[in-house]
């Protein structure tokens, strides 16, 4: 069973992602801020990370950069899922190391397709 780490500070979003992912056979882990997400990624080595951008403290762009540049976590694909939907946000997210960028509210099939396209 593939393991996905959700890094998002919104309990509502985490609940929705968990519901979708478990329905599709994934094991779900959670972190509610960027700093905890970076730590969880290193400790748990998930198969993929879903990353919010707007979070207190370490934001999603910073956490993505840390994960994608760390020797221990650089092989874990990160998909940013954010309300920030400007082209500059997409470009910046990918520059930080994200493999894909989806905007909220995310379509269930688009999310599953992006996961399958990026999971190792």
From TrEMBL:
Protein name: Response regulatory domain-containing protein
Matches recorded under Gene3D superfamilies: 3.40.50.2300
InterPro entries given in the database record: Bact_response_regulator (IPR050595), CheY-like_superfamily (IPR011006), Sig_transdc_resp-reg_receiver (IPR001789)
Domain Response regulatory: 3-119
SMART domains: REC
GO biological processes: phosphorelay signal transduction system
Residues with PTM 4-aspartylphosphate: 52
Lineage of producing organism: Bacteria, Pseudomonadati, Pseudomonadota, Gammaproteobacteria, Moraxellales
UniProt keyword Phosphoprotein present: yes
Keywords of the record: Phosphoprotein
Pfam families, A to Z: Response_reg
Record carries keyword rRNA-binding: no
């Amino acid at each position: 069973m593939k393991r996905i780490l959700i890094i998002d500070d919104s309990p509502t979003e985490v609940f929705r992602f968990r519901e979708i992912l478990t329905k599709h056979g994934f094991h779900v882990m959670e972190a509610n801020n960027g700093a905890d997400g970076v730590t969880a990624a290193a400790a748990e080595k998930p198969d993929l990370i879903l990353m919010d951008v707007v979070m207190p403290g370490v934001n999603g762009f910073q956490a993505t950069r840390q994960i994608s540049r760390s020797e221990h976590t650089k092989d874990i694909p990160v998909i940013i899922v954010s309300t920030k939907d400007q082209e500059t946000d997409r470009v910046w997210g990918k520059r930080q190391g994200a493999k894909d960028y989806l905007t909220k509210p995310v379509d269930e099939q688009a999310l599953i397709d992006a996961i399958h396209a990026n999971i190792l």
